[in-house]
From TrEMBL:
Organism of origin: Thermothielavioides terrestris (strain ATCC 38088 / NRRL 8126) (Thielavia terrestris)
GO molecular function: oxidoreductase activity, acting on the CH-OH group of donors, NAD or NADP as acceptor
Membrane-spanning segments: none
Any Pfam family hit: adh_short
Protein name as annotated: Uncharacterized protein
Domain of life: Eukaryota
Listed InterPro entries: NAD(P)-bd_dom_sf, SDR_enzymes, SDR_fam
């Protein structure tokens, strides 16, 4: 009975992870959300999910250490004290830095500071506590895999080669968590725990529905660079496509294959699109 803990299952990629992993009744899938009643309602109204008894929703803001600790304790009660997979998916995709380069952001120093702090709270510090709190369960599990959802935008080579100037603060927070993943791997590889920073590709979760013409133009220039990088790129994946690909990568990655501490994409490589 493989067990999974996935953070941020209220919507987007996390909800799709919940949907796909729980489709196998032998999996126990524990989703962590900020608003349990809202996600319970969503699941109960979802024709595919509503009768699945292997779904457990727990409430924790991933920036709240004590709430995460309580979620780890509740998980232990559900699984009998073990865990096979931890997927740190919850994250902040900031809007403030999405459309302007870092030099422009400097004209709003207070907002810049606030956004960077918020990004590090959830995308970095929250993941460190999440991993540390669930490690005792993972060490008693069979599979011992920790996946932190990152982004190809945190890749230095890609950024430098294509002068990707947008998403600077967000990308920095994900680059930081990539190193956190590598450091956890450095400590726990000998115990058989695989740590992976995994980019899900560019995924349409509805973030960019209501853009101003200026924002659309900024996005357009980024998409032109993406097309330059990956001529086959035709636009974002659906959450279903992305998670299907990510699950394959998670299943196939191993310490033996050299993936300990790796930063790779839904394609299982360092191709991000
Ligand atoms: N979409 C893409 O193209 C893309 C590309 C690369 C990487 N990613 C990464 O994929 C992950 C999922 O993002 P998404 O695209 O699915 O975006 P999303 O639709 O905005 O979902 C973000 C999820 O994170 C949760 N969350 C945010 N802050 C939280 C906190 N403090 N505590 C607990 N949960 C929190 C949200 O919960 P609430 O509902 O409570 O807000 C939501 O479930 C993120 O780590 C993101 O950086 C996405």
């Amino acid at each position: 009975m493989p067990s999974y803990v996935i953070t941020g299952v209220s919507r987007g990629i996390g909800y799709e992870f919940l949907r796909q992993y729980s489709s196998d009744p032998s999996n126990t899938v524990i989703g962590i959300v900020r608003n349990k009643p809202a996600t319970d309602k969503k699941v109960s109204e979802d024709a595919d999910l509503k009768d699945r008894t292997n779904i457990h929703i727990l409430e924790a803001d991933c920036t709240d250490y004590n709430a995460l600790k309580a979620a780890a304790e509740a998980t232990a009660k559900i699984t009998g004290g073990t865990l096979d997979y931890l997927i740190g998916n919850a994250g902040l995709v900031s809007k403030f830095d999405a459309f302007d380069p870092i030099g422009e952001l400097g004209k709003q120093p207070e907002l810049l500071t606030k956004t960077l702090r918020e990004l590090f709270e959830i995308n970095v510090i929250g993941q460190v506590h999440l991993i540390n709190l669930f490690l005792p369960l993972l060490l008693k599990g069979q599979t011992k895999k920790v996946v932190i959802v990152s982004t190809g935008l945190a890749d230095f080579e890609l950024t430098n080669k294509y002068d990707l100037e947008l998403g600077s603060l967000y990308s920095a927070s994900k680059a930081a968590v990539n190193m956190i993943v590598a450091k956890f791997s450095a400590q726990y590889k000998k115990d058989g725990v695989l740590f992976l920073a995994l980019s899900p590709g560019m995924v349409d979760v509805g973030h960019y529905k209501e853009l101003t013409p200026e924002q659309l133009q900024a996005m357009g220039s980024m998409l032109t660079k993406f097309a330059d990088y990956a001529p086959h790129f035709k636009g974002p994946l659906t959450p279903e496509q992305s998670v299907t690909a990510c699950r394959k990568v998670i299943a196939e990655a191993s310490i033996e294959k050299g993936n300990g501490g790796d930063f790779i994409s839904h394609l299982g490589t360092k191709r991000w699109l």
